[in-house]
Design a protein that fits this description.
16 strands; 4 domains; Endonuclease III, domain 1; single chain; alpha/beta; RT_RNaseH; about 525 residues; nucleotidyltransferase; five-stranded antiparallel sheet; nucleic acid binding; about 35% helix; RNA-directed DNA polymerase activity; five-stranded mixed sheet; Nucleotidyltransferase, domain 5
Length: about 525
């Protein structure tokens, strides 16, 4: 009853038991046994839910017995259980400083196909050395000269290399590993649980005290570079790859806008809102934002049409992320009807829609300073914050978004009475407006291009910009929050199309494809044996 309590909820329960005295236990209020009364007190919350207790004879109650007392058909099979510690001892032969002088004699170890079982006996090393043409030549020269060689020595029919380690006063001998055993030795020093998949330098420093072959460090480096576990779990210690590709500055207002949701807030506001839909014009930096109760496709399309298009006009291009509120049939049909080219950014790469993302980080602190937490009226403070932003000078353009959008200065509370212009003809205002707007736009364009160039230089400094090809195998950085012990990269994936810095990758198992940014990719290196 204790085990099932959380699954029962408030439903009535019928109990079928082969213990006949239990038939009336849920109906009685008092028993002569103190132990039973304590048991009933413990389960007093469940007892009212018991509608009936049905008695069934033991010989007819085999279904419960089959689950609680299963028969053991094969006693010998039950006795031959292998514990996890026994299995690990069968799979792994632990390396040590003298592991080349040991050989496994366990019959089970010899029969297992586990890649973690190694045979580094001196007998095997000697035989492998004799099969290696380069080592065979060195052995023959030493035996032919019949004198002590300063670089090599043969002991117990095994060829050793004489080396002097850094900070050592005497020379030492290490085994000269033949070509056929080199990868196996690296696997022992890198893949084995006692090696723990450490990096190139640590692995090489450990190996060079016991073994040698020409180009050993380079081969260790190539092996670890192609290690799938290291590629998926290691922390990336360098800047994420991919240079900055600034969006080309538009020629005028509403040529390119970006749209994104901010939220959700922890709870609904007093007016019932939980999200903010933000639209930013790339040319003027003018912002339109509106609080919304949800972020469904219908709500998004309704706001976009009523609060933006009907007030400012139809944009030529629209940038959004791949959220379901933007990536749906309704938005697809709406943009097609309006003639707006809808551009969707790479998956989990908000930098592709950086303008609106940057504004989201700007207005959030200002909104926090104005709203009353007790009244929970953050949406009432949104309009003043947006107005203050639009009427302030933007650091990139050198003008306020209001000026570039409407061609005039905003009237602020402390402003003096504005000057009155007189025009001889009605269309003189339009001509002067065009003249001033051209001056504004030319200056804003120069300011913006200058800031873009500076940002690109800072961003690209000491950062790689790899180029991948179609059919390349890559790992993809796991997005969002993950557990401490979970892999950082998943895959491998196959690149099926490219438009640098964006690539479309396909999962080799599920065949699901996604569009991602180059900064989230890592090339899969093939291991050549």
């Amino acid at each position: 009853m204790d085990k099932l309590k959380e699954y029962l909820g408030g439903r009535d329960v019928t109990i079928i038991s082969d213990h006949k005295p239990l038939q009336q236990f849920h109906k009685k209020s008092k028993f002569n046994s103190k132990r039973i009364e304590e048991w009933l007190l413990k389960h007093q919350e469940i007892i009212p839910q018991i509608s009936a207790v049905i008695y069934r004879k033991g010989r007819k109650h085999g279904d419960a017995d089959a689950m609680s007392r299963p028969d053991i058909d094969d006693k010998q099979k039950f006795l031959n259980v292998i514990t996890r510690s026994m299995m690990k001892s069968k799979q792994y032969s632990l390396p040590n400083n003298n592991f080349f002088e040991s050989k496994s004699t366990d019959n089970d170890n010899q029969s297992t196909s586990s890649p973690m079982t190694f045979d580094f006996s001196l007998e095997r090393i000697s035989e492998e050395q004799k099969q290696d043409p380069q080592l065979l030549h060195i052995r023959q020269q030493i035996l032919k000269e019949n004198v002590n060689n300063l670089n090599y020595v043969i002991e117990n029919d095994v060829l050793y290399k004489i080396i002097q380690l850094p900070h050592a006063y005497t020379k030492t001998k290490v085994i000269y590993i033949p070509l056929t055993m080199q990868e196996e030795v690296i696997r022992c020093y890198h893949d084995h649980p006692t090696a723990a998949h450490f990096g190139v330098n640590r692995t090489w420093l450990k190996m060079r005290t016991t073994c040698y072959w020409p180009g050993m460090k380079k081969k260790i480096q190539d092996y670890i570079k192609s290690c799938e576990k290291c590629a998926k779990f290691n922390v990336r210690r360098i800047l994420p790859p991919g240079h900055l590709h600034p969006i080309e500055y538009p020629q005028g207002p509403l040529e390119l806008i970006s749209m994104d949701f901010w939220g959700p807030t922890p709870q609904y506001s007093a007016n019932g809102n939980k999200y903010i839909l933000v639209i930013t014009d790339y040319y003027t930096k003018y912002v339109v934002a509106f609080p919304l109760p949800n972020n469904t496709a219908t709500t998004t399309a309704k706001f976009f049409v009523e609060q933006f298009i009907f007030k400012f006009g139809i944009p030529r291009r629209l940038i959004t992320d791949q959220g379901v509120h933007f990536n749906n049939e309704l938005m697809k049909n709406l943009t097609a009807l309006l003639g707006t080219h809808h551009i969707q950014t790479s998956t989990y790469h908000p930098q592709s829609n950086g303008l609106v993302q940057r504004f989201n980080g700007t207005f959030h602190p200002q909104l926090s300073k104005l709203y009353n937490a007790e009244l929970n009226n953050w949406d009432d403070c949104l309009a003043p914050v947006i107005y203050a932003y639009n009427t302030g000078v933007h650091s990139t353009t050198g003008y306020s978004p209001f000026q570039l959008m409407f061609g005039r200065y905003p009237v602020l509370p402390l402003d003096q009475t504005p000057s009155i212009f007189k025009f001889n003809r009605p269309n003189d205002y339009w001509m002067i407006l065009i003249k001033y707007m051209n001056i504004y736009r030319q200056a804003a364009r120069q300011h913006t291009l200058f800031h873009q160039q500076q940002s690109k230089q800072r961003f690209d400094h000491n950062r790689r910009d790899p180029q991948y090809e179609i059919n390349d195998l890559v790992f993809w950085k796991v997005p969002g929050h993950r557990g401490k012990l979970e892999e950082r990269f998943s895959g491998p994936y196959t690149i099926i199309s490219k438009q640098h810095p964006s690539y479309t990758i396909r999962d080799n198992h599920s065949l699901v494809s996604k569009r991602v940014h180059v900064s989230a990719l890592k090339l899969v290196y093939a291991r050549h044996t």
